[in-house]
Design brief:
alpha/beta; 7-stranded mixed sheet; 5-stranded mixed sheet; 14 strands; binds iron/sulfur cluster
């Protein structure tokens, strides 16, 4: 039941004090809707911890993450963080896209954790299970507090995003990079506008993200680009990759990491439903490619590597793969970590 009498930043909003059991587990306070974010529900929670320790077995290039949100309005069909929503008793499909958990106190909790004498100032990855610059960040503005807390404590950090909202914090991030090592990466793997609208419907356009890459470079920061995931038979042609890498290079990117799609857990069903509706002729090909599990077979990965390497070199993007965040669970109860193939 929503009460239209409550105000939120000058907007009429609805508030629901009931919550799913999964949300109660993570400190639920209230659910909020706003006309400005049609179709979205924000579940505000008070988190008990902000720093998440990545299990050592994950082999990821970082051991700590911070996620101010859970769920992501960018709504990428292939998002490998989708299964993490099931831990909250929400589904991995439209709930992941429209029911976003907001840790409203995340910066305060993080500041406290970073003050502990035991904190060793290891690099913290932002943008692992959710995009830190998704639409909700325009309202909740969690990132400035997180960045200040990390830089103020002498903690290096990395950011991965598709969100052009990062422009808002460029000055802050540039200042932070004077105090601690900072890595910024933009994700851009679909250059075709029609396919972008189909497969990443909540994200800024490819052109807008190219503009973001340029803005990051103009702010004096390196900008790595995640050309991932490459979608078999949709974005893996030489023509698409060549054109996209050329645009990324022209935008000023410092380097790229490229890897193919993996379909883990319930993401697989959500993605394949979409594929069946939009590209039914490819369903059989995908079933064959992923018949052994979540990852592309070695011969496909070898083909992609051989195809991409000369293009990356030709566009002057052949730098060593940098530390970039990918999906990691927030608790031991959540799904296993993904290990991508890095180029
Ligand atoms: S932007 Fe990232 S976290 Fe958000 S839906 Fe897309 S892949 Fe998932």
């Amino acid at each position: 039941m929503f009460d239209e009498g409550v105000r939120w930043d000058g907007q009429a909003v609805g508030v629901d004090d009931g919550a799913l059991p999964g949300l109660q587990r993570v400190g639920f306070v209230r659910s909020v809707r706003s006309p400005q974010f049609e179709g979205m529900t924000f579940h505000e929670v008070l988190c008990k911890s902000a720093l998440n320790k990545v299990p050592a077995a994950s082999a990821l290039p970082f051991r700590f993450t911070v996620n101010g949100y859970r769920g992501c309005s960018h709504a990428c069909r292939y998002c490998f963080a989708r299964p993490t929503h099931e831990y909250l008793d929400l589904d991995c499909g439209s709930d992941f896209d429209t029911q976003v958990v907001v840790k409203t106190n995340v910066a305060d909790v993080l500041r406290r954790e970073l003050r502990r004498p035991s904190w060793t100032r290891e690099t913290v990855a932002l943008g692992t299970n959710t995009d830190p610059y998704q639409r909700a960040e325009g309202r909740y503005a969690l990132m400035p507090g997180i960045i200040e807390a990390l830089a103020g404590s002498g903690t290096p950090f990395s950011i991965l995003t598709k969100g052009t909202l990062l422009r808002r914090d460029l000055g802050l991030i540039a200042d932070a990079s004077d105090r601690v090592p900072v890595s910024v990466a933009v994700s851009l793997a679909v250059g075709d506008d029609d396919l972008h609208r189909e497969v990443e419907p909540g994200t800024p356009s490819p052109q807008a993200r190219l503009g973001l890459i340029s803005a990051i470079r103009e702010a004096g920061l390196e900008c790595h680009v995640m050309v991932a995931p490459v979608l078999p038979h949709l974005t893996d042609s030489v023509e698409h990759l060549d054109t996209l890498l050329g645009r990324i290079a022209a935008a000023g990117a410092s380097g790229v990491t490229v890897f193919g799609l993996h379909l883990r857990g319930s993401t697989r069903g959500w993605f394949m439903d979409w594929l069946g509706r939009t590209h039914p002729g490819l369903v059989g090909d995908y079933q064959r490619l992923y018949r052994r599990g979540a990852y592309l077979p070695a011969d496909y990965r070898d083909m992609l590597r051989a195809r991409v390497a000369p293009l990356v070199a030709r566009h002057g993007l052949a730098r060593q793969a940098r530390m970039v965040p990918v999906a990691a669970p927030e608790t031991a109860a959540e799904p296993a970590v993904v290990q991508p193939t890095l180029f």
